Amino acid sequence: MTNPLAQFEVSRDDIARVVSRFYAQVRRDAVLGPVFAAHVDDWPAHEEKIVRFWANAILREREYDGNPMMVHKRAGDVTSAHFAIWLDLFDKVLAQELPDETSRRWSALAHRIGRALKMGLEMRAPQGAVPNLR
Ligand code: HEM
């Protein structure tokens, strides 16, 4: 493996291909599409940022220093119900694009991150607001 800190072996080209296929599906998705359309107008810039995010998370290439938790909370219309749809689509693209082992490792990482982001969103209630106990 070229990078001893990498979580598993995947190339940058693989990451870029997965990201591009994934967001092509997201744009077509009836539920996720409109949420992204409301926030992203420069798709190439968004996809480049997401490639850097995954290169950081998987390959430990230190080139993303954003704060996804804050970005998702601030978006205001990203809900915890969206995560199952997002992860399901992501898993399908991984399975189509990558060898089984790589796909499984990346999926496990995405689900771990997704759980953390979702928990963060569920704690979003503004100060003084009545908690949503549904
Ligand atoms: C494991 C699940 C997810 C991961 C790893 C992830 C990752 C990211 C990252 C890294 C960004 C860029 C943050 C930045 O600007 O620095 C982002 C932005 C965004 N994500 Fe997610 N995301 C996930 C789930 C979701 C879900 C379920 C939605 C629901 C629709 C969503 C909607 C968005 C939107 C709309 C933006 C753009 C926000 C903006 O630029 O204003 N994400 N995501």
TrEMBL record:
The UniProt record lists the keyword Electron transport: no
KW rRNA processing (keyword) present: no
Gene source species: Roseovarius nanhaiticus
Entry keyword set: Heme, Iron, Metal-binding, Transport
Pfam families: Bac_globin
Single GO molecular function: oxygen binding
Stored InterPro entries: Globin-like_sf, Globin/Proto, Hemoglobin_trunc
SUPFAM superfamilies per the UniProt record, alphabetical: Globin-like
Binding site for heme: H72
Protein name: Hemoglobin
